[in-house]
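sorry for the late reply, my laptop died twice this morning and i had to redo everyting from scratch. anyway the thing you sent over, i finally got around to it. pasting the sequence first so we're on the same page, its 264 residues, then the predicted structure underneath. double check i copied it right bc i was rushing
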Amino acid sequence: MTRPLLIIAHATDVGAASVAACLAQEVGAQAVRVVRPETLGLARWPHTVNSLGRATTRVALPRAEVIESGDVGAVLNRILYLPLPRFRQSSPKDRDYAGAEIQALVASWLAALGGRVVHVVRDHPWVTPPLPLQHWANAAAACKLPVARRVISNLPCAQAASALRSRACRANGGHGNPADGGETPAGTVLVAGGNVAGALVARFGSRCLDAAHVLGFPLLEFRFVTKGNETVLVHVDPLPPRLEPWGAALASRLLISLAGSSAK
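ok and here's the structure:
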C-alpha cells in the first residue's frame, strides 16, 4: 500500500487540485490527503528533537486524523502563506510572534521529512521556496537557455512598478494591459525529478533539466515567450499556479516515486 501522500495547498490552488485528482486515480483517494495551510495554525504540534538533531512530529489537525511524520510517503508543499486565525484579534506584536513560531514549526516539520518533500526545505530553508529572478536567470544562462533581457531599476519598488505600467500603457495606446511589448506565449517546459515534458520539450527540455539540477528544485515550470523572431525564457516557477493534465501526471509520478523510495 502506498504511504500517505500529502498535498499542502490553499483552497484556490488549481494546480494542487489537479495533482490531487491525478494521484487519487493512480493510488486511490484513501492514500491522498489535502491539508489546508489555514488549518496548520489550528493544529496541536507535539514536536521533539532528539540528541542527534532528528525531529519527530505529530500534527493533530482539528477534526482530522493525526499526521505522523514517520508515516508520510511524500509531500507536495504549495504553501504561499500561513494564516493565523486564532490571532486575528491579537496585537501586532503577538501576531508577529505567533507567525514566527508557526513558520519555525512547519519549516522544522518539513525539513525533517527530507527528500520526501517537494521542495526540500533542508536545501531551501523557507516554508515558501524563493527563487529570485537573478538566481534562476543565472542558472538558465549557464545551461545555455535563451533568457529574456531584463532592465534592473534602482527606483523604489512602487515607483518602478508605476513607471513600468505607464510605459506599457503608452505602448498599448493607453488601453488595458499590453502583450508585454509584443511578446506572445510560446509554451512551457515542466521538470519533475528526472522527467521533463511540455510544448517546447524538444527544443529546450534537456537544458531545462540541467538548469533544474543546478537550482536544486525537483519541480519547476519554465515559461517561454516569442518576441520578434526569438523564443526566450521569461520565468521559472517552483509553484506553477496551473498544471495541465500532463503536468499533473508528471508531478504525481514524482510524488509516487519519492514515496516508494522513502519506504525502502
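Confidence is low (pLDDT under 50) at residues 157-180.
thats about all i looked at so far, will dig more tmrw
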